[in-house]
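Lab meeting prep.
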Amino acid sequence: MVTSISSSPAVDLSRLPAPVAVEELDYEVIFAQMRDDLVERDPSFSALIDSDPAIKVLQVAAYRELIIRQRINEAARACMVAYAIGSDLDQLAAVFGVTRQVLVPADEQTRSAAVMEDDDNLRRRVLLAPDGYSVAGPRSAYVYHTLSAHPDVLDASATSPAPGEVSPDHRSIRAKGNRENY
């Protein structure tokens, strides 16, 4: 998860409360609930011991439920900009008209894959994207457009030395063509 967005009034993701959709998982709690449910349905199961086949079935069922709930948690996180990664983040970015930048194109001669913008930088641009819709020019719009202008731009800021004047600035430490710098 991103901890902050510098030079931007965008939401500070680190300050958001934990999502309610993502639940804390505990195998022992799930197993106990299943065992209690079984005893409630049939009291003859109240004296089961760990080696009993019914307990083994409940243990398997509880473990499978834990796995399913974990997958549900992962799916919920994948729908949130703060937690989404990889192609899930790409899908969320597309909603804002933002695509992952190509830092170094694929090279067919060396059979090397393209080097793409990392998740943290894409997430930052996604959070800034709505500011880029403005034609009035809020500071964060200049930052968004500067960051999106070229994949070599690593960071950006914008200042206004006088009313009606804007001075966007950018920083890049990426050496063009050097794959190790990405």
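Slide two material, second protein:
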Amino acid sequence: MGASVILYLIFWLFDVISTPVRRTFRTIRQMLCGPTANMMAVELLTELPMGLLSIWLLHTTKFALNILNQMRFKRIIREMEDLQVRGKLPKPPSKNALPPNQWSPMYPMEAVKSRMFVTIHELVGPRWNAVGTLGYFAVCARHSGKLQVSLVDLKKSAKHFTVVVYAGSKTVANVGTMQLSEHQWQQEWLDVTFPAKVRMPTLGIRLYGCHEESRFPAVRIPDNDVTIIGESVPCGEALDSQEVFDVLRTKEIYFYRALHWHMYPMLCFVRALPLALVRRTFLPAGNAETGYAWGAVHKSCRLRFECTDELWGLIDMLYVVIYTRGSITMASFEIPHGRRLFLSAPVVEDGFFLVRMILGSEGFAAQRRRLAAGQKAPSNDPTMYSFQAAPQQLKITCVNAEDVLPPEHVSPRETFTAAHAPRLSLGPVQA
């Protein structure tokens, strides 16, 4: 941790010294090219050193956190094994740990109010998901690499769902709506298999398009001496994402911006960088039924989305999340299905955006056909995991705040408001 403190102080000092230079470059850019202009190459004179310090700080801090987590997990596993031998269920080892064998909503307000919780997620999961209902289930029982999740509960709860098994922060199993065969879809329980060597797996659920009476599903561990059924928890208990992100915005500190400072210039010059590097650095944990598009967004600009009918034929949902330079959600909204043109509200500061596209049955069928044939799809194919949609299917541009949509695309009955619109004065998103 000492190295992280030293790097942070160096970053802060360089930021203080270079701020007047960066402001001058920005003013010149806006005078010459307008507010929507991308960062100039000369601006890398200040952004590149700070970006390298940011990357170094992020990885140094994550390394220290991983060592602490490994020590904590080893202690928890020893406690669990000792308690299991005596036939007792383990108790949570600390207030920050997931309670055993029960669902925990991803963003409970008491956790978000914790500075430690926010800091850990800024390190291990910085791209906050504003669109799906998430929950985790810590499996604290003997197993042989098999869990069962109530498919009845899942079908009643949401239009789309994904079941993920984690070993620490690594994904070891993934089953989603579009991966199920017709026979599997008719069953009451969904079998989830993963390597038996995973000693303390964590089950994660992503629910998209939740129904009114959504519930986290029941869980069965069939290989335990006594089958444990996790209690279903209503998704309504997971607090509204806008309320959570309002609290997160108040928790943003300079340290988070230092950790993720490199993201903005990286996405400004994304075309000059290897696509694999950008994906590995920027994208969140993978979901086989989600495609991604991303880029930088500049202060006082809007994002203009042009979607083709071909793209809407492949996907069911399209969500947009705009982040600050500290990777805290600034705004989030859904583009109505079938809409060809869409304009976001003006953003209040430099940042970046991430578009999540939930594949429909046709898109996922195309993906499975390619995988079965052993073909590797091009990087801009919108039917593959972690895709960057083809320009002819999804075009995203940064436009002036004064820009409006053509009259034929404006519908007064369909308006969407970005998250934090009242507090940040983003205003309504023009439909």
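Talking points for slide two:
The mean pLDDT is 73.
The first strand starts at residue 103 and ends at 105.
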